Amino acid sequence: MRVIVIGGGMFGASTAYQLARSGVQVTIIDHVHPGKATLAGAGIVCPWATRIEDPEWYDMYAAGGRFYGELIADLTAAGEDSLGYRKVGALVTSTDANELQAAGERIARRTRNAPEAGDVQLLTAAQAQAKFPVLRDGLEAYFIPGGARVDARLLSAAMVRAAVALGAEYINDYVTLDIADGRVRCRDGNGQIMVADEVVVAAGAWASQILEPLGIAHPVKPQKGQIVHLRLAGVATALWPVLLPMTSHYMLTFDDSRVVVGATREDDSGFDYRVTAAGQAEILEAGMAIAPGLVNAEIIETRIGFRPAGPTTKPIFGRVPGVEGLSVGNGLGAGGISIGPYAGKLLSDIIRGETPELPVSAYAPQRH
Ligand SMILES: Cc1cc2nc3c(=O)[nH]c(=O)nc-3n(C[C@H](O)[C@H](O)[C@H](O)COP(=O)(O)OP(=O)(O)OC[C@H]3O[C@@H](n4cnc5c(N)ncnc54)[C@H](O)[C@@H]3O)c2cc1C
């Protein structure tokens, strides 16, 4: 079987890697548009704290978090040692006591049957500050030891490399689709037909552009996110937990004294690849309100990503009815670093004719 995967972000890289592991001949084609979501994503993997209650989405989110253990082990066994993944734990806090209590109840309910979350503890304000030194005074927090952060740039590159080591081909190109006798056809940047049994569109926020010539109204739109990277020179931030203050903003750290503060959620900005004054102000204000110890941090960069946002939070993946040889994997939205690797595995099962281990009808393209 020969499969073309369009898009080398979290969804495409994972689908390609899982297909290659099963002996499928894969070609990954990625244009790497400015604003590719996987290059900007924060990298929080901590499903148990979310306020979203949609059970079909949450099942996928939680399974995605759980799957990380297996994925990291597999890639490590394949010789990949630059994955950017670390279980640093997560601090869930709030300035509102009722909100914190509600968060505690939610986390307890969700982690009851999730040993990978570890033993959740309520920390005093001083204990929370000891774990995240720039945190403001007086905030109790729940600590979830299984919370993790991952550098999605490194992880997606590792999945692509591992796929290539298994025989896949990686091409940097912009492809288009058309249809002949009811079957999808993929053309490279020169208009040449690329032969495949199956074409997988994992093209993120750009998928509707590539599907439109097939007469498919794909319901995924870009949701712009601006995310600020700060440096606390001389401070060892590598082991700080992810900080989730139960707003749409959050913080996480990386090894190079880096503190990442995210992120805007802009539904009406289209593909506007600019750092804006309002975006910058929103993030820095939210960040310093919860972590005043950041006031002297250096701004290193602001990244921009276009989250592939569907009509609901649920991802959309599977075979597209009515067009032979066409599958999609998309709609990862704001949780795609957590969900993408697992959703890619499920999609690879569907493409190979295997029964996925999780019921997938809720995510099928025909639902849209
Ligand atoms: C600021 C921000 C913070 C985030 N934080 C988190 C987080 O903490 N945790 C979490 O779980 N998720 C997070 N996310 C969400 C996550 O990053 C995305 O859901 C995920 O990366 C989407 O992956 P994707 O593969 O679907 O799309 P993308 O990564 O956008 O990849 C799609 C690729 O397809 C390519 N492509 C499109 N059209 C074509 C074509 N015609 N030919 C060839 N290639 C094409 C594009 O160039 C692109 O490279 C965040 C996102 C943003 C923006």
Folded structure, characterized:
The chain is α/β, with parallel strands linked by helices. The chain has 9 helices and 20 strands. The protein has a 6-stranded mixed β-sheet with strand order 9-2-1-13-20-19. Strands 6-7-5-15 form a 4-stranded mixed β-sheet. Bound molecules: flavin-adenine dinucleotide (FAD). Residues 6-12, 29-33, 36-38, 40-44, 152, 174-175, 202-206, 210, 225, 227, 262-263, 305, 307-308, 330, 332-338, 340 line the site of flavin-adenine dinucleotide. Flavin-adenine dinucleotide (FAD) binds next to helix 1, helix 2, strand 14, strand 18 and helix 9.
Keywords:
368 residues; alpha/beta; six-stranded mixed β-sheet; four-stranded mixed β-sheet; 20 strands; 30% helix; globular; binds flavin-adenine dinucleotide
Helix content: 25-40%
State the shape. globular
Overall mean confidence score, pLDDT: 97
| Tally of helical runs | 9
Radius of gyration: 20 Å
- Name the hetero compounds present: flavin-adenine dinucleotide
- Report strand order across the widest sheet: 9-2-1-13-20-19
Order of helices and strands: EHEHEHEEHEHEEHEEEEEHEEEEHEEEH
Distance between the ends: 28 Å
Structural class: alpha/beta
| Unreliably modeled segments | none
User: How many beta-strand segments?
Assistant: 20
Largest sheet: 6 strands, mixed
What proportion of the residues form beta strands (DSSP E)? 25-35%
